Amino acid sequence: MLIGRRRFSFDMPLMLIALALTAIGIVMIFSSSGYIAGDKYGQPFHFMIQQLIGAGAGLAAIIVLVSIKKSFFLEPVFIYGLLGLTVFMLMLCFLMPTVAKTNRWLILPGFRFQPSELAKISLILFLAAYCEKKKERINEWKVLAVPAAVLGIIVILILMEPDFGTAVLVFALGAMMLFMARLKLRYFLAIGLVAVLVFAFTLFRSDYRVERVQSFLSVEKDVLDRGYQVNQSKLALGSGGVIGVGLGQSTQKLYFLPYAHTDFIYSILGEELGLIGTTGGLLLFMLLLWRGLKIGFAAPGPKYKMIAAGLTLAIVIQALLNMTVVLGLGPAKGIPLPFVSYGRSSLLCTLAAVGIILHISQRKTGTVR
């Protein structure tokens, strides 16, 4: 099969959706963090400027990916190199200074990066390439042991940071990729059982994680302690009504709602722009899901299909997980809202993932010209 490429024929709707979500994020980050940034740094634009830097780097990655002729991200050297780099950076985090009692970041002068964001991309690329290469034998234990070990190493390193929510998300993405590779049910059950035991052990050995679950199950009983954050989030959403209190007019961002510009920025979106704003944000993610999966279905080869679908689902599933927490439908996980929450690492990696999908959208089966 010959695969041709129509230069700059990438999926424009997907590009516009990504740009719209990024723009919404920059506006909402300034709105939700301006007061805190001014109080803490003496510069209300601090967080917005940092997000603009991440957006610039991410858009540069998209330009490179849609411009380059060769699908370099399918090359074994790149795939295994990126995977090795990801694992190395995850381990290197434990030598870095702790931030809020965690080791999630590489911290260098003028530079801070969260490797777990890159882990989502590197894992999807690796599993797509490996499972396609071994597709005839993927249901043999010897063959399955390699992706299972890689997935296990990455998940355990993220759990050790600790970052329970991201570890669960990464495992779910890995399981999803193996499902697309047509792994048999009995192997899923075996891998799933091991994962449940590991996650349960990690959950119950940490008091604060148990408290998060308890606060989710009985949030109304302790709104001033364990249920405080979710309760404040609901107050923000409720006060917004249908049309919101107005852009920049949120009161919950004034130190009432913790992490207003990161994990709970969707609450501020609902408070300031109301149901119209939150529904619009959800609709954009659903449109992204539609375009990404459409590109995956139309892709010319199994690896392209798996990568496009995997990266699309990685973005949308993370968005839905964030929204469930904000709405009080799930325990707090510390997972940001893609494109919108503050975080240069998250935005850069999310835009790079979109760039890969856009690159794939230019690939067509036929004669190479």
Low-confidence stretches: none
Strand order of the largest sheet: 1-4
N-to-C SSE series?
EHHHEEHHHHHHHHHE
How would you sum up the global shape?
A: globular
Number of strands: 4
Q: Which band does the percent of strand residues land in?
A: under 5%
> How many discrete domains?
1
Mean residue pLDDT:
90
Structural category is mainly alpha
Quote the distance from N terminus to C terminus: 14 Å
Number of helices: 12
Q: State the helical fraction.
A: 55-70%
Concise overview:
The protein is mostly helical. It has helices at residues 12-41, 46-67, 76-92, 115-133, 141-160, 164-180, 185-204, 207-217, 228-240, 265-298, 302-326, 344-361; strands spanning 3-5, 106-108, 111-113, 363-365. Helix content is 67%, strand content 3%.
